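All the exercises in this workshop are built on plain-text protein records. There is nothing in a record beyond a sequence line and a structure line. A learned vocabulary of local backbone shapes supplies the integers on the structure line. The question running through the whole workshop is how a given chain folds. Here is such a record, shown just as it appears in the course material:

***
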Amino acid sequence: MSTIPVTIRRSLELEIDGETVRVPEGATILDACRARGHDIPTLCYGETLTPVNACRVCMVEVEGSRVLVPSCARKAEAGMVVRTASDRVRHSRRMVLEFLASSVDLSTTANAERWSQEYGVQPQRYGPPAPPAAAGERDAARAGHHHAGDGQTAATVAQPVKVDNENYVRDYAKCILCYKCVEACGTDWQNTFAIAVAGRVV
């Protein structure tokens, strides 16, 4: 008679905002936070996708760590002390959301409006958005080389919408660089690699 091997996952305890939380070994800080009902903002995280740590809006403070850590990818550890709403964390989230909102249209980004209100986001302090680029202008630019703006407007990625076919409609003015489309086309799901990143190392 054959037996099916059973994997027993141990659990561990950590502290989140003064509260003791028990999670299975291998869980992330984000898993632990969500298990206790903490609302941690995420833009690039997907439950069925490998974390890419791109958006940096889920950052939390871990006692003993010099820098903030991405809760979506950092594994929970026994005895870890986590703060999800310290002044440092809130400032970091506000800055990420402000920079993003100053350069792209977040009107179709889930929860962006709610988080903007919660963190007091004021992208208008960077000036009004610069005019959209002409068709093909951004494609002709050399990756990694940036030109100084006029100092009066906020640089954006706005350009005419690209319609390759009915399956690929690209509106870069609304692209938040979450990489979900890239991950879904890669090894996490389709393995078609139909969409890839250009001009940036991930």
Observations:
- The CA atoms of residues 44 and 84 lie 18 Å apart.
